[in-house]
Amino acid sequence: MQSTSTIPVLRVALPVPIRQLFDYLPCESSVSPQAGKRVVVPFGHRKLVGVIVEVSDNSDLPFNKLAKVIDYPDGETLALTRELLDLLKWCWRYYKHAPGEVVFNALPPVLRKIGGMIPAPPLQYCLTPLGEARLLEPVGRIKAQFAMLESMSKGAVTDTQLRALSPSWRKTLAHLLKQQWVHSEIRQAASLNPARGHAMMEEQKLAVEAINLSRGRFQCHLLDGITGSGKTEVYLLVLEAVLSQGGQALLLVPEIGLTPQLVSRFTERLGFEPVVTHSGLSEKQRLQAWDMARSGLARLVIGTRSALFLPMAELQMIILDEEHDASFKQQDGFRYSSRDVAVKRAAGLEIPVVLGTATPSLETFSNAVDRRYSWHRLRQRATGAAQPRWRVLDLIQQTMTGGISSIAMEAINETLEKGEQALIFLNRRGYAPVLLCHECGWHGACQHCDANLTWHRASRRLLCHHCDNISQVPLMCPACGADALQGAGEGTEQLEQVLARSFPQTPLLRFDRDSVRRKGEFERLAAQVKDGEPSLLVGTQMLAKGHHFPRVTLVVIVNLDQALYSADFRALERMGQLMVQVAGRAGRDKLPGEVILQTHYPQHESLLTLLTAGYEAFAADICADRRAARLPPFSYQALLRSDAPEKNDVRRFLDHAKRSFPAGGAMIYGPYPAMMERRSGRVRWYLLVQAKTRSSLHRQLDEWIMGLPRLSTARKVRWSIDVDPQDY
Ligand code: ADP
Ligand code: ZN
Ligand code: ZN
Q1: Cβ of residue 205 lying under 6 Å from some atom of ligand 1
Q2: CA of 97 to the centre of ligand 1 (A)
Q3: Residues of the chain with pLDDT under 70
Q4: What's the pLDDT at 4?
């Protein structure tokens, strides 16, 4: 039944995992109901915060069944702009996710809750004429008050700056305000005061000109530049152009790439502090960043994935650094690719978007090859440093110590003797990836996952890297009682120990999630390395990104062989990207660099292409393979993932779902077990839907998904849709 009347019906997004909006009627209030405003509504026995997504004049329900809004907590202030609502609507349709969860993902956590409010505009403080006079008056000075007055003598200051003065700054400020020595005003946007950069190199100049030329319209740029080729410099130049004309800009970086080093480089060059946001901030800080973006006070925001959804009325450019990075795809809940949504947002706003990387993802690469993106190559290192030399070490018949061959050991020794630094890369933390009994073959496996327990020797624990399972290391074999337990394989903890034994005089720093737990620890270690004395760095991919270590001249890649013959068709692409990133750490400055790759497969074709012809040729090669095999980006995929404690429930649901798949251009395959079938005590399987065109994929998915909640077998499992999946 459909009801129509002059009373508006509000379609509200609520934070519940249901694929629909909910209809409400407005309450008596002076506030006009409008799309983008937050509301408080009754939902079952609860009250929930929601966001009005649409105002309509009809409902599928009779009007007398519709509940009324309880409150508009922000009055006339919009929580989401029209532009963001349109983007979010596109997102829930494209990613087939519950609208409420998509909308709430775009709000800072405080605003998802009842009681949370959009804050008043932030203030700044300046001296009054009375205050200026007081500053010159020596009698009766109180130190704290004068320090505060002094801090304002060169211009307005913010509460963040005042907080740094003393813990009791609030009390002091209140006094100064009462005396009318100081007055407050609404904060002004930071003004650009750029420092001079380098003279541009030819390649940089071409890229900057092309990007600047595309201002005011939608254009996707691939900035494809080797490590050290001056990509960041290009970002700074194009940002300067946007910001100097009153625009706002957004720079998205991978989780691991958001370092204080990066932020201070931007601050120094642009002459103001960008607003930084990531999931590690407190709720209050996130709300502040959101509000600064919304009010236009934030001219430049640097953030991780979720910063993409910040409201910015003057947004004129989006830049994604390290566009290939896996952390741009959210891997649970609302599984979106922030790269693809960034492109979508730029298209909607008719602004340029810049994707920067040394190792383009195949998706981006093929868009550039097909000229949908304009492609700017930077192939010269800006500092003039040479590209590192590769040396492939066939591991057959090598003497090994804890994973390092004697030849690599010798090269490390030579590097240290020259007074330089070496970096040893292994993407596996812990001491050994498995603990084995040499009598009976028992090995430590996780009870909840299809995974071995990693032996962390220093902390005397066996740890599952896939769930939170922790156990003590047994003294004897739990199966046969023999005293024959040994680690098999090696992790960074073992490398550290082996290297410390071989080079006892050399400072050694380990970078991985175990050694770098405390905040600021990474920065402290990095600063130590930059001091430049001969030293050894051991680490996981934490070391591969962002940081510039000028005195590293040797990189040893201990082992990446698993990726060469993985069942995951993306493993090779990721391995190539990782290798190039790690190699990029060598010889960034004046000193030439060398990279040693240890492998059992020195003749692997793709490996050879990468090493002899470079990443672009490597990418073109695997692109050709993917095209031949009709894999993405030459086809479009979606998964129906399902998990439950019992395998039978999952299988039954997926078989059932498969039978209900509508006919059309898209084909359905499976069910298949996930790469890791059991994880955290749940069995995980999936169905794969694949199509030649995006449109047929989406048409069939939409039809299919509508019926899934009604399948009787759906009640015993969890299920979700993953469009453009990145892992299986
Ligand atoms: P990427 O982001 O591609 O790794 P960066 O922008 O960090 O490269 O540049 C690498 C180094 O080269 C930095 O120290 C930077 O200051 C310097 N640099 C960048 N562009 C130039 C240039 N045109 N002339 C001289 N040095 C440059
Ligand atoms: Zn045993
Ligand atoms: Zn586990």
Answers
A1: no
A2: 41
A3: 1-5, 517-519, 545-547, 588
A4: 55
